[in-house]
Structures are given as C-alpha cells and as structure tokens.
C-alpha cells in the first residue's frame, strides 16, 4: 500500500477584509498518496488555486490541519520563464533560489532536460521556443530541485488546443516516468480524466469535496489513448453532471 504524502483534515479558510469575512473552504477533507496523480475540478471561483496555496503552506488554514510528508514544486498557468535567461539558466533557477546549486544538482537538472527533449535548446532563449517546448522547460525547472509533490495550477490553460493535447501527453509521461506525486487543478473535465488516477469534485464556495472517483482505464496512463477509450465519455458524463448539478 502506498504511503500517504498529503492530507487535508477538516480544513477551513476564512479571509478577513474591510468588507467582512469570506469563507473560501470549509470541512475540506482529502488525501494524496505517494506516486499518485490527483486532479481537482470545481465551479469557477470555488477556490481551487487557494487549495494549492494551502497544500504548499503559502496559506495557513483558519481551522483544521494540512499535513505533508515532502517538498513541493509549483507549476503555474504560464511558463513564467525569464526571457533574459537561457533555458539552461532558467532550469537552474530553483537551485539558485534554494542555494543548492551544487555541480551534482546542476548535472541532474541538465540530465533531465536532455532526457526529455531539451538537449538542443539549453542555450536558446524562451522566445526561440514554441509554447509547448516552453511549458516542457517549465516542468523541468520545477523538477530540478527534486520536489516530492508537484502542484499544477492549470498549467495548460494558456496553450492552444492542439498544443495542449501534446503538452498534456509530455507532462504526464515525464511525471509518471520520474515517479512523482502530482496534484492538478483544472477547469477542464477532459483534462482531468485523461491525466489523473483520481478526480475530486469541489462544491461552490465554501469549497469542500462533494465527490471522489478512482479512474480505471486498465492501466492506461497515456492521455491521448484514454481519449479513445469507451470509459472516457462515461466518466465525462458523470463528472459533468456532478459539476453542474
């Protein structure tokens, strides 16, 4: 049985402003196991991104507890690569920030870049890469410091549809090949089904988990192949009804 690496227990988050209190989450309970890919969907404005901030410790819950057993890497909606730095220098950035830029760690980061198709682009600048390649570089940068848990905040939303499908496949392959745990926030039901081992459905604000599903695709983890399977449309219908019911 896989080890639990992240747990939310009766989490509540209340924002205090000059206009009063806003409860963003309440009675929020779920867990993520090591090596698992979990997707979270929910209505617009329900606080999905807030959930990632709680997971990473950037926000503290007003009540309840968030427990984690590892370090985090954060991948945002946009690649946020620095345009004045080469791809190699961008990939090294987390090592510099955490002051762990040892020759061994830099060599590991370069090895990841070469392994996943960036060997010929390390001396290039972000403007010279396609959107898909930039997002791949952003993922390698996130992996450079060897985090235990990847927090993915709608990382494909800025891409066009065709690029999005290809990058989904890239990201899924890399994360699973490296044996990483991933928590994905997305508004796209198809994206959740094509990528995740489990899908959590949130309610409107204050957010809590209303439904939880383990997806069974007979061990198929390739997003494009999942799209072609009969169970895909069945899961889409179920999640659509739960999200819009």
Please tell me about this protein's structure.
This protein has 245 residues and is an alpha/beta fold. Helix 2 packs across helix 3 (103-115), helix 4 packs parallel to helix 5 (161-177) and helix 6 (189-195) packs across helix 8. The chain is built from 8 helices and 9 strands. The two termini are 34 Å apart. It has helices at residues 48-55, 87-97, 103-115, 131-143, 161-177, 189-195, 223-227, 230-244; strands spanning 4-17, 20-33, 37-41, 63-68, 72-75, 149-153, 181-185, 198-202, 209-214. The protein is globular, with a radius of gyration of 18 Å. The strands form 2 sheets. The protein has a 6-stranded mixed β-sheet, with helices on both faces. It has a 3-stranded antiparallel β-sheet with strand order 2-1-4.
Largest sheet: 6 strands, mixed
- Strand fraction: 25-35%
How many strands in all?
Answer: 9
Mind telling me the C-alpha Rg? Answer: 18 Å
* Overall pLDDT: 91
Runs in which pLDDT lies below 50 for 5 or more consecutive residues are: none
The helical percent reads 25-40%
* Count of discrete alpha- or pi-helical segments spanning 4 or more residues: 8
For the termini, the CA-CA separation is 34 Å
Order of helices and strands: EEEHEEHHHEHEHEEHH
Shape field: globular
Walk across the major sheet and give the strand order. 5-6-7-3-8-9
Coarse structural class: alpha/beta
């Amino acid at each position: 049985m896989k080890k639990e690496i992240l747990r939310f227990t009766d989490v509540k988050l209340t924002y205090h402003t000059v206009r009063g209190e806003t409860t963003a989450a309440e009675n929020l309970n779920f867990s993520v196991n090591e090596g698992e890919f979990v997707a979270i969907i929910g209505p617009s404005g329900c606080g999905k991104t807030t959930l990632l901030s709680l997971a990473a410790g950037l926000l503290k819950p007003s009540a309840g507890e968030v427990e984690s057993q590892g370090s985090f890497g954060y991948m945002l909606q946009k690649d946020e690569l620095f345009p004045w730095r080469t791809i190699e220098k961008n990939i090294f950035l987390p090592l510099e920030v955490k002051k762990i830029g040892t020759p061994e760690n830099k060599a590991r980061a370069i090895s990841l870049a070469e392994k996943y198709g960036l060997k010929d682009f390390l001396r290039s600048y972000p403007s010279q890469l396609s959107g898909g390649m930039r997002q791949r570089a952003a993922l390698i940068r996130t992996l450079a410091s060897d985090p235990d848990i990847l927090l993915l905040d709608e990382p494909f939303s800025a891409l066009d549809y065709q690029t999005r499908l290809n990058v989904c496949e890239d990201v899924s392959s890399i994360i699973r090949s490296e044996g990483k745990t991933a928590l994905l926030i997305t508004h796209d039901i198809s994206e959740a089904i094509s990528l995740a081992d489990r899908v959590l459905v949130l309610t409107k604000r204050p957010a809590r988990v209303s439904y939880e599903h383990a997806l069974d695709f007979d061990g198929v983890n390739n997003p494009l192949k999942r799209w072609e399977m009969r169970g895909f449309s069945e899961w889409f219908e179920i999640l659509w009804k739960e999200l819009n019911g």
